[in-house]
Design goal:
CATH class of the largest domain: Mainly Alpha
Shape: globular
Order of helices and strands: HHHHHHHH
Radius of gyration: 17 Å
Number of domains: 2
CATH topology of the largest domain: Arc Repressor Mutant, subunit A
CATH architecture of the largest domain: Orthogonal Bundle
Low-confidence stretches: 81-102
CATH superfamily of the largest domain: Winged helix-like DNA-binding domain superfamily/Winged helix DNA-binding domain
Largest sheet: none
């Protein structure tokens, strides 16, 4: 039996969770699969939800973590599970534009972002999504990922530096 509260959360936030998952994972089918998983996890954790954050923030956190785990699993399955500096020599983000030369720029951008995120640890991935995609404040992101604000700033700066370097080498986003 489905909790009435979960049904209300799905009615209110289901499409927003879908949009987040689609942005991070790419395809509609993958996004809808992820939405189902997110709400299954929400159902399992609903009794432990303490209300320290909004339901939307809670669901976004579940969705982001799930999608990043899916992306990491894909990378391992395809044999691209590189973890050190050599990961930056993996297929360049710019190669994605070659796959979609006349495609929707938003699709190319989303694919590029996913490609770049794969080069960072899970905490930095989540911080980057929260800050650059969700446009959360640095203070809120730091709290959410468990870092001090100065440490978060260093991580975001390192993320930008490595991403710029990767995009410059690969000819990604302009």
């Amino acid at each position: 039996m489905v909790h009435p509260e979960l049904e209300a959360l799905y009615a209110q936030y289901g499409y927003a969770v879908y949009r987040r998952c689609r942005y991070l994972l790419g395809g509609d089918d993958d996004a809808w699969d992820a939405v189902q998983e997110v709400f299954l996890r929400a159902d399992a954790g609903l009794s432990r939800f303490e209300g320290r954050a909004s339901h939307r923030t809670w669901l976004d956190t579940i969705a982001t973590r799930h999608c990043l785990n899916v992306l990491r699993a894909r990378k391992v399955r395809t044999g691209r599970g590189l973890s050190g500096p050599e990961a930056l020599d993996a297929p360049a983000a710019g190669d994605l534009a070659d796959l979609y030369p006349e495609g929707d720029p938003a699709v190319v951008q989303a694919l590029t972002v996913r490609s770049l995120l794969a080069h960072f640890d899970p905490q930095t991935q989540e911080a980057a999504v929260c800050y650059f995609v969700d446009e959360m404040s640095q203070e809120d992101v730091a709290t959410r990922v468990g870092l001090s604000v100065p440490t978060l700033r260093k991580r975001l700066r390192a993320f930008l530096d490595r991403a710029r370097g990767h995009l410059t080498r690969g000819g990604g986003l302009s």
